[in-house]
Amino acid sequence: MPSFSFRIATAALCLSTWAAHATTTDPRGRWITASGNLEVDVAPCGEGALCGTATRVLANRSMSPGVDAMDPVDKRPALGMTILIDFRPDDDDASQWHGQIYNRENGKTYRCQMSLGPQGELVLRPYIGLPLFGKTQVWQRVQP
To answer: What pLDDT shows up at residue 71?
Structure first.
């Protein structure tokens, strides 16, 4: 019969393994966009869904070279704007999320895949039609 301390150690190991797995697939938290313009909070926004809301404006650089970010199509303030919309985990792969991403520069909403990269970065792939025709963005987690 295993000792009490062995059972506690085993339970702690199982819990830490579960927690590590949860963090490697869970995109919740605060992120800095690929352009470095916004801090976005990814949080639950409905049953089983995640959304990302701009919580801080850091800069005003364009995502597209040669485009003037000072004159976005959407004139609303970025602060409080929902950028990531209705992301839900993939039925076949819980580490992949699917939803929509809003681009304030051109006022368009795109279908988007989301996952965590190997170093814990948020990898987003907005696309039209098929993900093959998308462009990958990498967002960095905000350090506490």
So the answer is: 65
